[in-house]
Design goal:
Pfam families: PSCyt1, PSCyt3, PSD2, PSD4. The protein is mainly α and about 725 residues long. The chain has three domains: about 30-130, no CATH class; about 160-310, no CATH class; about 385-655, no CATH class. It contains 31 helices and twelve strands. The protein has a two-stranded antiparallel ribbon. It has a two-stranded antiparallel ribbon with strand order 2-3. It has a two-stranded antiparallel sheet with strand order 5-12. The relative contact order is 0.10.
Length: about 725
């Protein structure tokens, strides 16, 4: 491989240095193996006890016991005590940096790793089998009243941010540059610790960096496709690059400067600074001299793609702080932030021009550009639909395996596409968007394939009839089964509708939460999942926090096919479980109105043990299970919300539940909180109260316009300003 010139190494090192500065080190949880309690105790005394003494027991001791935790009395032997769950919590708090609290000295990474190593090893020796978990960064942990009490608005506290590009943005960037060239792999993936995928701190480690470099070279190879004929360099590559590829003539300084300028403009949408020109022109020249014109040029072009600015979203601001201690994002930062908030593409020419001519220097100017992007009918805005997909979570229906024999024509993709179309249909009208999405009985049913499916069904029916006429005895016991029927049956219809959208019965369907896609997404392979459905309602509509499942708890319902789901969930009412399940059960059980394919039902099918025992042949051999229809209970109650208009309200059906929720101001405000997280890419903090309240007022005053809400967020203080030396929530 040709030698890389020093400037390329500096570029690579700058990326790694920025990664280290932008995120805390990820502490590995190596595994230890202990054969006896004595071995574990020796390692505890050596590796864990000193760390706890230096950083933890000052607050968590017998006298103070903050958080009801006395570490001095916590038994290191997890097998003979009940300390396993407590140690799991300690490991999680330390490993994720939640403890020690902000402002207190933190353990060195090696010390934390040693403690985690002991704890994981001891848990396995004790048969507890807990491993280090990563805490879910739930923005709902900020109390709702702190954010929406107009009488008390904390000062803004959002700090500078460095974010890596989302997988979609990176794919669009490399796709534009390489025009779909094969061999470019996706280096990024969501970390799973946040409500939405494009949130949290940058995640750039060594394997990711290596893939970025490989991709950059692949892009550069595509950018320099050429051939040499009769001593002349020809090809579709830009003329600025072709000038460097001549094997017979060294490039001039002017040609090198032109190539550098072209690549900067192509990749970063700006001209190189004088300092960058002074660094990259000699860098290109040395690489070409060392490795030849082709390889040397490609490494030079790849180096631009490895600049931090090409991989990260820099939102740090600049200039002197204003009277409130804030600095405003630079116009160029605003342009990229706006483009990436709504699209997967870099800023268009109009945004770049606005940044260069003062159009983004004022809040009003930013709001104007945001509305232009939102109103442009020709502009692809995939992130808006993606918000609703991730907010409702209905796209997870694609990942839930369903037993084919239970519903042969189940088509999760068609169901998800139907809900996509419903969301877009409501967004097109842009009035009372949340309320409509929660209450409308309008629906699309296989809107992309209904016509084609009808034709297939007609052909299949004609074929069946012809074969039956020709072989009546063979078809005597056979009945025609139409392909695709499971799709429309999921909505309670007897056929595909001729007109889309269709109005479903108002007492059976109301909004996305009664769409088959959402119901399937929040189900298992063979059953409903009222707990997951209730957790979604509690967190996404009521703004509550459901604690993580304790590591020592085996969260499984009893296997009792003769009982209804509500009856099997009775075990969750035990005192230890009910602390969490009281937040979920009563708002999830109303959705028992539908089966796990999303079909409306009036009874639940369960096993009939007595009839099954009698279902035998003459020799006493079982002829299979017999089922019965059990009465369906769909009643629920809203409790522990912290809102007097909702607490204590009983509901009889899921339709009644969602209509009560859709009429709630709190639910609307919680929706605004989630829109904030998605479009700003971080959890809200108390200092965002002014932004959230203003965004909610704008949404309400506009009659529930999503465009107005998003424009308000994208021109807000939280979007445009940073407070130096302040940590911003994930």
């Amino acid at each position: 491989m040709p030698r890389l010139a020093p400037p390329a190494l500096l570029t690579f090192a700058a990326l790694v240095a920025l990664r280290a500065a932008a995120q805390p080190a990820d502490v590995p949880a190596a595994e230890a193996k202990f054969a006896t309690p004595a071995e574990s105790r020796v390692e505890f005394d050596r590796a864990a006890a000193p760390v706890l003494a230096r950083h933890c027991t000052g607050c968590h001791n017998a006298k103070t016991a903050e958080g009801d935790l006395d570490l001095t009395a916590l038994d290191p032997d997890m097998k003979t005590s009940t300390s396993g769950a407590r140690w799991a919590m300690v490991v999680e708090k330390l490993a994720t940096g939640e403890m020690p609290p902000k402002g207190r000295p933190r353990p060195a990474a090696a010390d934390t790793a040693a403690l985690v190593r002991w704890a994981v090893g001891e848990s396995k020796r004790a048969g507890k089998h807990f491993a280090r978990r990563t805490a879910y960064a739930n923005g709902n942990r900020v109390p709702h009243h702190v954010l929406f009490d107009p009488k008390t608005v904390p000062p803004y506290d959002g700090g500078p941010r460095v974010r890596r590009l989302s997988p979609e943005i990176y794919a669009a960037l490399t796709g534009d540059l390489a025009r779909g060239k094969a061999g470019i792999a996706q280096p990024f993936s969501p970390d799973g610790r946040s409500t939405f995928k494009d949130m949290g701190a940058p995640k750039i480690d060594e394997p990711v960096t290596a893939q970025l470099l490989q991709n950059a070279l692949a892009v550069a190879e595509h950018q320099t496709q050429h051939k040499v004929e009769d001593g002349k360099v020809k090809g579709n590559a830009p003329s600025e690059f072709l000038a460097l590829l001549d094997p017979a003539a060294a490039p001039t300084d002017a040609q090198l400067e032109a190539a550098v300028a072209y690549q900067f403009q192509t990749v970063l949408r700006r001209a190189p600074t004088a300092a960058e020109r002074a660094r990259f022109v000699p860098f290109f020249r040395r690489n070409i001299a060392d490795a030849g014109p082709v390889v040397g040029t490609r490494y030079g072009l790849a180096a631009v793609l490895m600049l931090p600015e090409a991989v990260f979203r820099l939102e740090v601001g600049g200039g002197p702080p204003d009277a409130k201690g804030r600095v405003r994002l630079a116009p160029r930062e605003v342009a990229f932030a706006l483009a990436y908030a709504l699209t997967d593409k870099r800023p268009d020419a109009a945004l770049i021009a606005a940044a260069a001519t003062g159009g983004l220097d004022t809040d009003a100017g930013v709001a104007r550009e945001a509305r232009r992007l939102l109103d442009d009918a020709k502009l692809d805005r995939p992130r808006v639909l993606r918000f609703f997909r991730e907010y409702f979570g209905y796209e997870a229906a694609l990942e839930v395996f369903k037993e084919p024999k239970d519903n042969p024509d189940h088509d999760a993709r068609a169901l998800v596409e139907d809900t996509d179309r419903l969301v877009l249909y409501v967004l097109e009208r842009d009035t009372e968007v949340l309320k409509e999405l929660l209450t409308t009985n309008t629906s699309f049913v296989a809107h992309k394939t209904a016509a084609a499916t009808k034709k297939q069904r007609a052909e299949a029916k004609a074929k069946f009839d012809a074969e039956k006429a020709a072989n009546p005895e063979r078809f005597k016991t056979k009945t025609y089964k139409a392909p695709g029927r499971s799709i429309y049956e999921a909505y309670g219809l007897t056929d595909f509708p001729d007109v889309q959208p269709v109005e479903l019965p108002g007492d059976q369907r109301a909004g996305v939460l009664t769409q088959p896609a959402w119901l399937v997404a929040h189900s298992t392979s063979f059953d409903n999942h009222a707990i997951h459905r209730g957790k979604w309602v509690r967190e996404r509509l009521l703004g509550g926090v459901v604690p993580d499942i304790p590591i020592t708890v085996d969260a499984q319902l009893p296997v009792a096919p003769e009982k209804t789901l509500r009856e099997r969930m009775g075990v969750t009412r035990q005192e230890y479980c009910w602390k969490c399940h009281r937040l979920m059960n009563d708002v999830g059980l109303p959705f028992e109105q539908y089966d796990h394919f999303g079909r409306f039902r009036t009874a639940e099918v369960v096993l009939d043990p007595e009839a099954t025992a009698k279902n035998v042949d003459k020799k006493g051999k079982s002829l299979g299970p017999v089922t019965r229809a059990a009465p369906l209970e769909t009643a629920g109650v809203l409790a522990l919300v912290g809102d007097g208009t909702l607490d204590g309200k009983a509901v009889r059906t899921p339709v009644e539940l969602v209509r009560v929720l859709a009429a709630s101001e709190r639910v609307e405000q919680v929706f605004v909180r989630h829109a904030f997280r998605y479009f700003l890419g971080r959890n809200e903090s108390p200092g965002d109260a002014a932004t959230l309240q203003a965004a909610h007022r704008a949404y309400r005053a506009s009659g529930g316009s999503m465009k107005v809400l998003v424009a308000a967020l994208l021109s807000s203080e939280s979007f445009l300003y940073r407070v130096p030396n302040t940590e911003t929530g994930g």
